Amino acid sequence: MTNDGPGFFTSRLSDGIAWARKWSLFPYPFVTACCGMEYMSVASAHYDLDRFGAAWPRFSPRQADMLLVVGTISQKMAPILRRVYDQMCEPKWVVAFGVCTCTGGFYDNYATVQGIDRVIPVHCYIPGCPPRPETVLDALMKLQARIQKEHHGLRGMVGLPIPPPGEAT
Amino acid sequence: MADTTLNTAPPPWTLETTSEPGSRQHSMLLNIGPSHPAMHGVIRIITELDGENVLKAEIEIGYLHRGFEKDCEVVGWGQAFPYTDRLNYVSPLINNVCFAMGVEKLLDIHPTERCDYIRVIMSEVSRITDHLTCVAAGAMELGAMTAFIYLMKAREYLYGLVEEVTGARLTVSYLRVGGVKSDLPEGWLERLKEALPKVMDCVDEVDKLLTRNRIFFDRMKDVGVISAEDAWSLGFTGPVLRSTGMARDLRKDEPYLVYDQFDFDVPVGSVGDNYDRYLVRVEEMRQSVRILDQAMARIPGGPVQVDLTGRPLTGAEMVDVAKMGMTADLLLRQVRPDPTLEGADKAAIRNLNAPDRRAVLPPKEDTYGNIEGLMNHFMLIMEGEGIKPPPGEIYIANEAPNGELGFYMVSDGTGRAYRVHCRPPCYYLMQGMNRMIVGGMVADIVPTFGMINMIAGELDR
Amino acid sequence: MGNPMPENPVLNRLRAQLGEAVVETHAHRGDVTVVVHPDRYHEAMRLLHDDPESDYDFMTDITCVDRLKLKLQPRFEVVVHLYSSRHNARIRVKTRPLSDTDPRVDSIVDIYPGANWPEREAYDMFGIRFNGHPDLRRILMYEEFVGHPLRKDYPVNKRQPRIPMRDIPDDRPGMMFV
Asked: Chain A neighbours among B 407-436 (CB < 8 Å)?
């Protein structure tokens, strides 16, 4: 093949893998603070994350593919977050849940990390203090749309390096 | 040449060897947390185990320290309310109430009786949400997912009601120094009356599911026992203290707001184990409903909606009237404000807030309508101004769902706090948790921790 | 600050025992407060705990105030709140460590076991050293942290990251905002 773009077969395959991946996101809820209350609401029956295939929390980073960082990350917590992220297998996506994880929120002081993107890469930012459950569902749908657009190959399955998230598209 | 000496040193995870017959050779270190589902994400417990028995436990906290006390020194007194929301984020209204009462004590002002009733009502609604969350999370950690889902459903009813009053589900910032942000919306009390039976139905259902459930009973009964003397000397308060049999409740012992006018019981346990704590929490929800029923029946009348001078004006009309020079009785006129200000109009503010210009924002009609109101607003809002309590120091305590929530405040007479210290009830509970888990099984850490109801926001501040 | 001190048997008892070591008393907004000399602080707490007339059996809270910006000497003030279940009364006891550079007071963990963590917090946040404390370590901050964040001369947003922070370019490709 001479053109740069992916071939017909590769893109069909990518679409298929993306479809499978986006409907079976296993979240790792890294819950620290107030937003956890809203995470509980989102996850339980009233708002129901299960409709999007993303309800079953895996509390082992090795089995999860969506890191939901819920709540303020302090300087004391930052190395642990980094470690959990490093332990997750590719492909992985990070969602910053709540304004503290996006920018530090109104905690501009000695103790707080000013946004988790200072520690790990982030794919989706949900502002709000805490965000309403509807916002979270919206974010999840946007993340799914993004996963659909990303290129998913078989490279990961034969042990070839995968480009870091954000550059994979 | 390779070194062939065998390494006989114990592996790094062993601490000491015990020589008692029948016991295991080595104790093992097990690290639980901080990112662990049962540790609510922010507690690290380093345990030393002999088989499954806990020999020693070291609790490390501080993973959610976000500088609440330092932040309070940077912002004004009134601006600190959002920070207090996020202390105990399961019952933020009670933190709000306590902080507001503290600043009012510094200023020596008192809001109206209706306002006190509103504060009591909102506090008790918060108490129910807190206990619901505690029981739900505690049950879920033992595998009782059904109870969790049922109780979350119950909590949604209350969150909906809280949102109607405050505009937010969780982080409410509803209280103001000298009053509340706005009056209760129309028909809200009726809706609360309708919602409470629904909430209590869920609680009753969970009561049936859990209380006599063999698995739940076995995991909770006689687990995490602490004696009344130990609990008292370690600074325990709230349901955990009451589970040991001490009937200490600030609402009874040092009544604040209008709690002395209500008839309610303080449930106490007898053994001081997790099961008692669970029962105390469930019973406290019922008592809160009793208080709410009485408060709803007795709350003094709402704002008088009748205008003395005739038809209420809208804000725009009032400006037009003023521009035409008809300012003679403008101060007395009642204005129908923008719908976004519902509950915060002049009549409501006068009816709820302390009549004190040093602390209470003027109603929006006055801010936009006359120079006194504008200046008053300016003085309270602008940088470097604000609420300025006279120099002094106070301590104020409230009965929060976890125990005594206290604020120690020092004012130096400027618009900012010189020092605010929060006495979080969980802090003392977590300090004593060591005694509850050592000697037990490692699996018992989970229900004990769940029934302590550690809230990281107020624990680490 | 301060309203005239009403007649209080507990304070009279303290004065009788400690004499000059009772530095100051006041009851601002009804909160009975007594300031004692740091050398006699432990003795005063022991008296308040044991004496049946006071019987303050519950330690509510320990904290500290940095009085740097109030321009008062000595700089630090350790504040203890006590509660008596028998008399349903509260009292605030304060003591001012003599040295500003190495503030030290006696620990009261032997009287009130619940004082353990609060004293660690006061050490962590203000650098007050409690003599005789069984385990004086940082509690809320991490061990690598330099300084004491609640001191008035610690800047509010001086951060000390434990791991290197990433640089974030202004233009972040692939970022989504909801």
From this structure: none
Burial of B324 from C-beta contacts in 10 A (0-12 / 13-18 / 19+): exposed
Q: Considering Cα of B111, then B116, then B117, then B118, what sign does the dihedral take?
A: positive
Selected residue of C138, C139, C176 to mutate for chain A interface (largest A Cβ count, 10 A): C176
**Scanning the structure block, which residue is given the tokens 């956890």?**
A36
If DSSP codes are grouped into helix, strand and coil, which group holds residue A138?
Answer: helix
- Nearest residue on chain B to C59, judged by CA atoms? B235
pLDDT tens figures, B89-122: 888 999 999 999 998 888 888 888 888 888 999 9
The 3-state DSSP class for residue B314 equals: strand
Contact residues for B203 (Cβ-Cβ < 8 A; gap 6+): B132, B151, B154, B282, B285, B286
C-alpha to C-alpha distance for C88 and B92, rounded to whole angstroms: 27
Nearest to C27 by CA among C48, C9, C3: C3
Torsion sign over Cα B158, B163, B165, B166 = positive
- Number of residues that this document lists for chain B: 461
Q: Inform me whether the pLDDT recorded for A11 exceeds 50.
A: yes
Residue A158 binned pLDDT confidence (cut-offs 50, 70, 90)? very low
B336 at interface of A, judged by CB pairs closer than 8 A: no
Task: Establish if A113 touches chain C: CB-CB under 8 angstroms.
Answer: yes
Q: Is the per-residue pLDDT at B306 higher than 50?
A: no
Identify the H or E element spanning B377: helix B371-381
Q: Answer whether C161 sits within 8 Å of A166, measured CB to CB.
A: no
Which residues of B are less than 8 Å from C65 in CB distance? 410, 418-419
Query: Complex ipTM, two decimals?
Result: 0.89
Q: Specify the DSSP element, H or E, that contains B179.
A: strand B179-180
For residue C24, the SS3 value is strand
Average of per-residue pLDDT across C152-178: 73
Question: What SS3 state is found at C3?
Answer: coil
Please indicate whether residue B40 or residue C126 has the higher confidence score (pLDDT): C126
Identify the helix (H) or strand (E) that includes residue B417: strand B417-423
